[in-house]
Amino acid sequence: MTFEELGLIPPILRALTDYGYEAPSPIQEAAIPPALEGRDVLGCAQTGTGKTCAFATPILQRLQAHPAPKGVRPIRALILTPTRELALQIQENIAAYAKHLPLRSTVIFGGVGQNPQVERLKRGVDILVATPGRLCDLYNQGFLNFSKLETFVLDEADRMLDMGFIHDVRKILGWLPAQKQTLFFSATMPQEITELVSSLLHDPVRVAVDPISSPVEVIDQSVYFVDKVNKTKLLADLFRKDEIQNALVFTRTKHGANKVAGELQRAGIPAAAIHGNKSQTARQQALADFKAGRVAALVATDIAARGLDIEALSHVFNYNMPDVPETYVHRIGRTGRAGHTGVAISFCDYSEKENLRGIERLINKKIRLVSDHPWPMQVFELTRDSHGRVVCAEDMEAKAASREHKRARSMSPNAGHRAHHADASTPSRAGQEKAPRQRPNPLAGERIMDATARLLSSRAPANRDTGRTGAPQARQNGQQGTRKQQRPASGGAARRGRGDQRRSKPELRRSNQKDSTEQPSLMKPYYLNDEK
Ligand code: AMP
Prior knowledge:
14 strands, 532 residues, 22 helices, seven-stranded parallel β-sheet
């Protein structure tokens, strides 16, 4: 089967060829023809199956067939997806597939300032990719109008449910016209999702591919029995010895991700951590560095890695064996995509052997054991707490680190901040460049100081005496302001502004001061350039 046989028009075919697609994946074969006819589609498929192309190309073709009315373009297709990473990746794919078409798309998601997004919406877009929270915010402020909507895509519906977005989704559905085409994708079909399907879809074509319990055959899977304390040494050793172009390393905790990334860096392997405590800017920076090959190891928690679309990922490491066997299949499915071969390597310590057995039962196969390595398992007992109860060592360590972090912060306003930077969780460019001054890496630490915080730090009391604006001074001093000012960008600027006004009246936010996302140095990420 070819894309041409599916009925796609030449400009889309050319874009797919440019993008390196040779033949349609099973979900594309099944979903594209009925979607092109305007039918509703119910796709049971997860990320990695090619579902984005399956829903995006029919949308583009149908929009292209009826040009937008004159004037500001109305939104004619809406794609709702649960995470910012997925939203960005879908938008990137759409921009690539629409390369030879005069259609405009954009993406909106939370965690960054809304102004640039609003500006792009005001200029008019045909296709909008959105996460639920930001969509609700902008709709309630009157920036969105769906009266001309023709196609609605609900992506990863089951994850919407998991992440608690289902009420937002129901609210959004009420804002859309009743007459529309709906393309609905979900990896699993829990009860709530089935109910949503029957209320939303009319006579849908059902397409199911790649059930979760069938691990991709092309992936070479192996397991090493190794003690906790030796896992990073083994990891670094494999990086040095094997031909590892890039690897996604899964850890159990956010603290673990920071720690492993820091240890790898110290071992000379460029690494970055990506998890929910990182700001959106830091996560995107880490992902962009990884995609560009500047970072070889991206160390992630399961939640942060969900939906990450990294083409040609050579290795996946399970630094910790997951508790839930299906998670193993999700993780290793990140490699071996789109016809590439992949390698999945798992590190199993004594306490994780039961998890390994569960995984092997699920995939119905024994994972190849590699016993010839420098750090064979030597600890054959479980970790126990002071009451003799079996505990998870990683969880205990993460809790202890969190307590220590809180204690340090309560001791001194800057102590917590210093603690962040002692923990090199993301690759320190400053470090790599051997900066003469002790300049902190803004991307390091669990909570980084992002652009908003830098702006607000101009009102840092410590710098008021100098008569200079705080941010540059703080940067010169190797400080980034007080703890209060290190809050991530998700809090309202107005709220923070009020707090700062109380402390520092003379240096109120200037009316011409820009929103954090308009700071060109930090906030001109690649995804803002994708418009036609
Ligand atoms: P998705 O499931 O849409 O996230 O796609 C997973 C990955 O497969 C993405 O990197 C796509 O660019 C890629 N992909 C999708 N369809 C094809 C295809 N027909 N040929 C090659 N790669 C594809």
